[in-house]
Amino acid sequence: MDLNRLLMWIVGFYAGLAFVVLAARFRGRYPGWLFVQALVLGSMIGAWFVVPERAGWMAAAVWVPLVAVPMVLSRWLGRLLVHRRYGAAHRVAVVMSWLHPADGWREYPECVSILAEILGGDFAAARVRLTALTHQNSPLARFASLHLMRAEGRWQEILDRLGASGPLDLAAPGVSVEAILHHERALGETGRVEEMLERHEAARARVGAGGLGTVSDLHVAALTGRVGITEQLMEGPFASYPAATKAYWLAVARQVAGDRDRAARELERLAADAPPDVALASRRRLESPLPTLDEASLGTTAREALRSFEANAGHELRYRSLGIPAARSLLVTKGLIAANLAMFAVELRGGSENLVNLVNLGALVVASEPFPGTAWRIFMAGFLHYGFAHVALNMLGIWVLGSYVERIWGRWRFVVCYFGAMVGANAFATIAVRAESGDPVVMVGASGGVLGILGAALGFALVAWMRERTALLGRQIAAFTTVLAVQMVFDVMTPVVSSTIHLAGFAIGFVVAVGISLASRERAAG
């Protein structure tokens, strides 16, 4: 497999998609990122005309440090802040500010310092730092300012700043998801639960559930007393959060639900023992308890919004794979990757691109005459790979797609779909593929199984969507279909890749998944 061509496809696809999303959805609000994506695409196109055999490498050399690394560091920074590792967070922020100096990222180190002081309860020092920021109206300055007002409980001031009428528009200049989340929570904290529900529904319809994220679900669940949903959120998307933070939100949900004695005991414990930010919020909840929500007092629109939220939150928790702890259900995914890598290590002794070595280890050979031992090769070929790029790409596919199928649909369904597709696609290849010019065709790789997982993911999601019509499943179906389309175009333009095995694996995985889903539904109905 030509790694240069592979890098062109990967980098070109992601950079092109990012450019379109930034330009269309965010309307140029992030000019720095637009410039970076254009730079990546321009470097790849320019290199293609000058040194086409290095175009993918040159594009990757621009994309990795300017796009991939900052994005990874951004997620890492969030985790460090959640767990109050401020020193490490500041160092990461410094690196980020140099890798992406545009769009206000140069202020990241100072904003991390401000957040550290806010979370540590030193509001006076945070206020001094905030006023000293060079660009007072930058996105990061507004972000830090909102966090300070939130920590001090200045909810009405947040509403006054963000606007008290109409749902916020994510596409409007100066409005971010963070602003929407603060606006939403401020409504609930000031007792305007009916408005919070209505505006949450409007914002969800405008920017999508994926745009708002699970933090929005947490705000609405806790501030409407949905204890069950709050508990599921704490066990899923917020499982890695500090225990004190999770206990606080559960106490808030119980307080609004009417379980006031239990909520008070938990808040008293947190007020005495929790970190400064949680302790202060707990004391505030004890001094000014939120009223018990009386659903009967809600207007028709708000009640419908609450019912819609409960249904959507349930769907999000059930079908969003990122909301399930990875350690709980990735045994098969990790096992498959380990088995493939172990077999690749065996290949290296004789050469992973040495056809004789691969045939001796069990590669599938399609020739004009029957090849000895074809039956065991149909299985064994799925664990062999031709070179580092081949094994790396397939392991990435197993990890990304396998994580989804195994977490959402379970281990045994994943095993059936993966091995059914892998073995079935290889067996089909012995019939459908014909050797040209009399030369045998050597076939290796887990691609049949990987495309089988893709087919299974699409099949499971499609049946579930037909039953429940959830927006999350619709987005996932669109994503899986896009991946399939890109894969097929790649196969057509890369002759060394077997589109026969890919299509067969996808079809088998899809049919098996649909069959399992329909059978499970019939058993449930019975």
Describe, in plain words, how this protein is organized in 3D.
By secondary structure, the protein is an all-alpha fold. The protein has a domain of 200 residues: Rhomboid-like (Rhomboid-like fold, Up-down Bundle), CATH 1.20.1540. The protein is built from 25 helices and two strands. Helix 14 runs antiparallel to helix 15 and helix 18 packs antiparallel against helix 21. It is globular and about 85 Å long. The two termini are 50 Å apart. The model has no long low-confidence stretch (mean pLDDT 82).
Q: What's the SSE blueprint?
A:
Layout: H1 3-24, H2 31-50, H3 55-82, H4 86-99, H5 108-119, H6 123-131, H7 139-151, H8 155-162, H9 177-189, H10 193-207, H11 209-212, H12 214-223, H13 227-235, H14 243-257, H15 260-273, H16 276-287, H17 300-319, H18 331-348, H19 355-361, E1 364-366, H20 374-380, H21 388-409, H22 411-432, E2 441-443, H23 447-468, H24 471-493, H25 499-525
